[in-house]
């Protein structure tokens, strides 16, 4: 698995798709911080204010993250390079490596938003969140941080990025089945919002609500500026376990699949 993982990491470091998505996330995070500042100052009209939401992390990471997972997992099936990979390692190693790299790719998309939140707080920039996501609330809350405050912003940002990776992990087994990056991107982007609707509906039944709390889609797992250390650790554990579970599902699907 180690060699497979090294090969996948090397491929992504030189992947045009990954580089473009990461640069797009950086540009979107910077523009989102600036536009939130303009919202706070009243420098945007109502129509423009609605457009700001399109640059929020919930939109950009869900869209680009789904695309990256599709590219990482599905592309080898399109290019037929999956045959070479499976000759060099087992199907389990192949899926495990893709799972780790896909989760890492989505995590990295969240880093620019964490940096933007840190810059916003460090400079005392006045912002008005267009969408009340973790990164937007971090940029808005409180005065300029001290050393402990910087550490908290970094910790919450890291957990938020891990949570995004977990929420999109359902795209990993999906990519094994459909083998089409564009289909994975569309399905993953839609699922990111449908999942919230399903979790909201499940809250009406106690048994279903208890089950959703074991997934990264539960509202209780959303990292907030005032989340305790225990809550951040609990969210991280749920997210990592869910990613591993999706990797297991992907392996079960690939285990007996015919690869043409």
UniProtKB/TrEMBL annotation:
Keywords: Membrane, Transmembrane, Transmembrane helix. It comes from Occultella gossypii. The keyword Magnesium does not apply. PROSITE patterns: PROKAR_LIPOPROTEIN. The chain crosses the membrane at residues 16-35, 55-74, 95-115, 150-170, 182-203, 232-254. This is ABC transporter permease.
